[in-house]
Specification:
heterodimer, A: mainly alpha, Fumarate Reductase Cytochrome B subunit, globular, B: 4-stranded mixed sheet, 33% helix, binds iron/sulfur cluster
Chain lengths: 236, 496
């Protein structure tokens, strides 16, 4: 009997977790949407507390969306990203804005946490799942910031190392060698991200799946005809 | 011409006694659940007063409804460009403080308190947090406070009244007020529908009832901010918005909505109006002083053969057209021009109309009795206790003409009926008044009948909804009969 070495742990956290998480995410989301469409909502608490809400929700959402988009760019066009970063000025601009977005997220998250803890009305509508979500965001954002500060130029090494790893997962040929040698904090960040994906469909995070897309091009007024709808259903 | 039918309503304000039976009927059926305690899909306000939520008519504060910008209609609270930011935090969203924090009492203490020197009491506890609270506001908090400096004087409709007119309203010991019952207006140009990022709100094509699809609502709260009447409410427990459904399950089975059915003053009328859907946008963008007329011009004559043909071509059932022909709403709105839309300047084209109240107008400020007949028949209307401008702000977009017309006609009809039944007013004076008020004796009798002697069937002319036909297209009606419910069998449970 040997104690599972770091290699085994890496395999579990960085290969098994992603696949299991994504499968859970897809299956549970579909099932929840089909069985409990009613529960797909933002569960907004703005109605109960309208002031601190602004200082939490706005910076948090703008911050986290920017940060996630950054990750997405690194994943989709790693080569272009590396080319962009080849000039130090451009690298500084990119890293600087990423850091600002991350700090914005942290500020938002902090005020969200304070608001949930201190406002009695908001606390009354806070479930255990909400605390799990908030807790995992704390881990995710703090670890992300730590990595950004202490293992600098993440935008470059993300494109060079994490992107190939992610693509290897997508193409079903998992290969963790590019990320195996990364510092442990990066691995914490990655593992907790996979975990979040796994439990997202059980929590209020499902509101991300139903962001309002048709609004931008639909007509202002919506009319539904019961008879026409029935006709279509009947003939189908 | 794109003819559609709309279930429309008239509330006759002179007849409202402010008993709130309507509100209670609605509450017991629809909003007696967790998260909806604070909602009043039907509420009755005292005017002048601030209403519910507090000062809802002040769109500087709530930013509801539409506004005209370079001749184009725009939502005050949102736009396509602003949806993204508004979704995280809606700057125009009212909070619970604008309504009130719902509460109950620790009734258990009355039974379970240990023996002691004092009588046990039931203390108020919040229905949100379960903690003890100090009640600071409640439903209908300014009921009957017509003269109060805190509530009545903060009425947004007093903004352009002269100090003299204000004094008329608040003369000590001779206060005057009236009741203003409100439900969702099921508008033709609903700003709630237009604002919804998810497209969860819709207007039913067949009858015009505006509903929120509970499965598609995502709690983005845009409708709550966009409705200028504040008749879309956020359920803080389920995270979904809810609004008046005009008791459509009752209507579909031929019953009047609960608030209509239970109305003690019998102030409520319901019937079909046919209208031209192609002109909605144009009408909603009319200049303010023409809005009432333009809105009225949308309503089509259900006896006009061209209208009937167009209605049939649009799939409107013959029985619905017949129902429209005997609609009491059509008479009040179109034939007699007595009923006016509330705050038409919000430009949502409400389909609930009000007959402006006569009683507070007739109680002239210098006389103790109802105004008599003088040389100038209608002088007391212009000099009345409730200044005409106040009523004009509510029902005429600030313009007095239409309100004056409705009040004059009502006064003339009263005088005429007094001449007929009591006889202490000479008939020639009465008919002269009728003439001046643009009313024939026949019309006066018809108004009198539908106002005072109306039966249940005359007040509520409910069209057959023909749901059975739609069902037949989908499945065996007999099989359907045994398996109907609210449409989906999922409990409205709050998600995690
Ligand atoms: S039940 Fe009728 S009379 Fe009573 S408050 Fe309501 S609308 Fe007025």
């Amino acid at each position: 009997m040997t104690i599972p070495g770091p290699f085994i742990l890496d395999q579990i956290f960085l290969v098994v977790f992603p696949y299991v998480s994504v499968i859970i995410f897809v299956l549970v989301s579909i099932r929840r949407y089909r069985r409990e469409a009613f529960t797909f909502t933002s569960l907004s608490s703005q109605f109960l507390e309208n002031q601190n809400h602004f200082w939490g929700l706005v910076p948090f959402h703008f911050g986290i969306i920017t940060v996630l988009l950054g990750h997405l760019v690194g994943f989709l066009v790693p080569r272009e990203l590396l080319a962009w970063n080849s000039h130090p000025i451009r690298l500084y601009i990119l890293e600087g804005s990423a850091l600002i977005a991350a700090l914005l997220t942290l500020v938002g998250l902090t005020s969200i946490l304070l608001r949930r803890l201190t406002d009695p009305k908001v606390r009354a509508v806070t479930s255990r799942a909400d605390w799990v979500v908030l807790g995992s965001f704390v881990v995710q954002i703090l670890s992300g910031l730590y990595v950004a500060v202490y293992h600098s130029w993440g935008s470059s090494w993300f494109a060079a190392l994490a992107a190939p790893y992610l693509w290897s997962l997508v193409t079903l040929q998992p290969d963790i060698s590019p990320v195996a040698s990364l510092p442990w904090m990066v691995k914490v960040h990655m593992t907790s991200a996979w975990l979040m994906i796994a439990f997202a469909p059980f929590t209020r995070l499902v509101h991300i799946l139903v962001v309002p897309n048709p609004y931008l091009w639909r007509k202002a007024q919506v009319v539904r005809w019961y008879t026409k709808w029935a006709l279509r259903r009947g003939s189908a | 011409m794109n003819v559609r039918s709309q279930i429309s309503m008239v509330f006759h304000l002179d007849k409202c006694i402010g008993c709130h039976t309507c509100s209670i009927a609605c509450k017991n059926i629809w909003t007696d659940r967790k998260g909806t305690e604070y909602m009043w899909w039907n509420n009755v306000e005292t005017k002048p007063g601030t209403g519910f939520p507090t000062a809802w008519e002040d769109q500087q504060k709530y930013r509801g409804g539409w506004e005209l910008q370079d001749g184009k209609l725009r939502l005050r609270s949102t736009s396509k460009a602003k949806t993204i930011t508004n979704i995280f935090h809606n700057p125009s969203m009212p909070s619970m403080d604008d309504y009130y924090e719902p509460w109950t009492y620790t009734y258990g203490d009355l039974f379970n308190a240990p023996e002691g020197a004092d009588q046990p009491v039931a203390r108020p506890i919040s229905q949100v947090t379960g903690e003890y609270i100090n009640i600071e506001a409640g439903p209908n908090w300014d009921d009957d406070l017509g003269g109060s400096p805190v509530y009545a004087e903060s009425d947004p409709n007093l903004k352009n009244l002269t100090p003299d007119q204000r004094e008329q309203l608040f003369a000590v010991e001779r206060l005057v007020f009236f009741y203003f019952p409100r439900i969702c207006n099921h508008c033709l140009n609903p700003s709630c529908v237009a604002s919804c990022p998810s497209g969860a709100l819709y207007k039913r094509g067949e009858d015009g009832i505006v509903l929120i699809d509970q499965k598609r609502c995502r709690g983005w709260r845009a409708c709550v901010a966009a409705c200028p009447y504040k008749k879309s409410f956020y359920n803080w427990s389920t995270g979904k918005s809810e609004k008046c459904v005009l008791c459509y399950p009752r209507l579909e089975t031929g019953q009047a909505p609960a608030c209509f059915h239970s109305c003690v003053g019998r102030i409520r009328y319901l019937g079909v109006l046919l209208y031209d859907a192609d002109r909605i946008e144009e009408v909603a963008a009319s200049p303010t002083d023409q809005l009432v007329d333009a809105h009225r011009s949308l309503v089509l004559n259900p006896r006009d053969p061209a209208v009937i043909a167009a209605a049939l071509a649009n799939g409107i059932h013959e029985s619905v057209i017949e129902s429209a022909q005997s609609s009491p709403v059509y008479k009040f709105v179109k034939e007699w021009k007595l009923a006016l839309p509330p705050h038409i300047e919000f430009r949502t084209l409400p389909m609930l109309y009000y007959v402006p109240p006569m009683s507070p107008v007739m109680a002239h400020r210098d006389e103790t009795t109802v105004g008599g007949v003088s040389e100038e028949f209608f002088h007391d209307i212009e000099d009345s206790r409730v200044p005409l401008q106040f009523l004009a702000n509510l029902f005429g977009a600030g313009h007095q003409g239409k309100v004056l017309y409705a009040l004059k006609k009502q006064k003339a009809i009263r005088t005429y009926r007094r001449a007929v039944t009591v006889g202490d007013i000479p008939m020639d004076v009465a008919t002269a008044m009728l003439r001046e008020a643009d009313c024939s004796p026949e019309e006066a009798e018809a108004v009198y009948n539908l106002t005072s002697l109306c039966t249940f069937e005359e007040r509520f002319v409910i069209p057959p909804m023909h749901r059975e036909e739609a069902i037949e297209m989908m499945r065996d009606p007999l099989e359907h009969k045994g398996s109907t419910g609210f449409g989906f069998m999922e409990s409205p449970r709050r998600g995690l």
